[in-house]
Fold these 3 entries.
Entry 1:
Amino acid sequence: MTVYFILLLIASYFSGSIPSAYLMGKWFRGIDIRKFGSGNVGVSNLIHATSVPIALPAIVIDLAKGIVPLWIANVIGLGLAQQAAVAAAGVIGHNWSIFLNFNSGRGALTTLGVTLFLPLFNGYFPWEIIAFFAIMIPSLLIFHNIPVGFLVSMATFPLVSWLSGKPLGITLGFVALFIILVVRRLAVPISPEASNLSTRELLINRFLYDRDIRDRESWINRRAN
């Protein structure tokens, strides 16, 4: 079983590394989305650079990156902690793609797929998804701040998991996903737009807003289309 676990970890990372948003931009519009909008290799920037229909396959693929390896891990009988590790490997692959010099998207959709199906595959109701929408809907409609809402909702997942009586393996999986999110936001090269910011301000911007500067419009349009 240990061999299967290791092989599945590797497979999950490599499948997670498939840069779906980048590929959709190349295949359907012949563009490199890293040169458009925010420069992020994710679905949101793909939509910004192209259109929603072109982004739909990328959305499905990104969700599958977390769900399919998790399902395989569950079917072959891996424990909860091992299932969570396999799912996390898919998120890590998406965030640090080996095919794009270890720099890719933010893994939001892959993370949501794991959040929904890690409990479901093991017979637990995914209250974490309910918490996610309870936080994200006001964040989007009232505060117009998706990055902060996503951060807060991710931070609540381990607590919701623990309060709803889920096993430790699932709760620790959500802790790992939150840590991956924070590391991905903080550990990226400094952009030219942030050259005059203090380290403290830069880290706050990245942690809360997932960008180097607070001005969202300037950030998502920083690369000429």
Entry 2:
Amino acid sequence: MSQVTLYRGEVKRIALAGGIGAGKSTVVDYLRSEGHVAIDADEVYRQLTALGQPLLDALVDAFGAAALSADGELDRSYLASIVFTDPAALRQLNAITHGPIGLEIRRQLDASTGDVGFVAIPLFRAEHRAQLALDEMWSVQVTPEVALDRLVAQRAMTPDSARARIAAQASNVEREQLADEVLWNNTDRESLFARVDELLRERGFDDH
């Protein structure tokens, strides 16, 4: 891939996309360990749906009190069991959550300092580039077979549940069409980190 040298501002903004089980969180953790700003959309979602947050109330209004656990917090497992088997429910969830999450991510990016800021976005869409003033998108990818094995072995999902989660997301081909770079993660972490380091060096972001 050719090096990207034109950016919108002083802090370069790079999105990390990838389906469930691809390894976005692993890349986020690695980037943070190297001293880079790395925002995780899943973490933002958890923050915005915490007790007392307006987004939690909106989800309860949409999906009922069953969306709450016994202690009043969002029951993410229950919600996932609904939306990943019902496309209409998934669209409803996305319509409620995408706006507030996007605004909070943009706020955090705007407040960030340093040479580069990363943001992990599971459901990356073309419009995210303008909404978040992104310079690039790197797609972290695995084959569906590897993703399935990881979800069953590491997250204790049933094979049917894992397949439903994978099927509800964009395909690798669809992500590649939106990506500036692809990071394959079918093998070990060392290979993944080596690829991240390679891209950081190309862009002059390896001085941490």
Entry 3:
Amino acid sequence: MEYKIAIVEDDHAARDEMRRMMKTYSVKRKIGLSVSCFYDALSFLNDGHSDFDAIFLDIQMPGINGMEAARRIRRKDKNVLLVFVTNLAQYAVEGYEVHAYDFILKPLNFESFSMKLDRICNELSHSLNDAYLMLSTKGYERRVRIADILYVEVLNHDLVFHFTEETLRIRGTMRKMEEQLAIHHFVRCNSCYLVNLKYVRQFKGNTVLVGTHELRVSQTKKQSFLVAFAKYAGGSV
């Protein structure tokens, strides 16, 4: 398996350093990375970007900056992994608008950069793109992509499926849905929430940030949830 990576970075030294680190990582991990470099966002957008698995975008670039480029990419491609490379951490919140997968802070450090690449390659290796669910809602069948589900919530006797921009409510049981989604890396953080691990951003005390949603983690589920996420992020499942 070889992953196609784009680096969009106007700084020559930073661009070459990132490409060099990716080449070293590829050799050490024995993971194929095909890396293409672009000097600015406009040249990248004009070149066409539908074939890449992941795009590393500098945010501060002349002309079209990385955030605006990401917005344009998302209009055509909802699935490509967007990774921002910046020296300004405050852009992280804005990145949720374009569903950024991760942020990498400059200056780059190979050890921490490798850990980021581990997570990115692990995400790309999970075959979720073609997995779908058929949900019966409001008298009709709705086909949804499993990779787009942030989490499932029990509400009264219904299941509420949370997506980035909408929710769907159906009749069903959490136990059956948990069994169905287990192979797609959905894990309960408490009795009410079944979480897609790909959208977990942060743990804080007894809460977990899933996309932009803060969910409670129960004491009974906390250990198993943390273990499941560690395995997922580390690429061992």
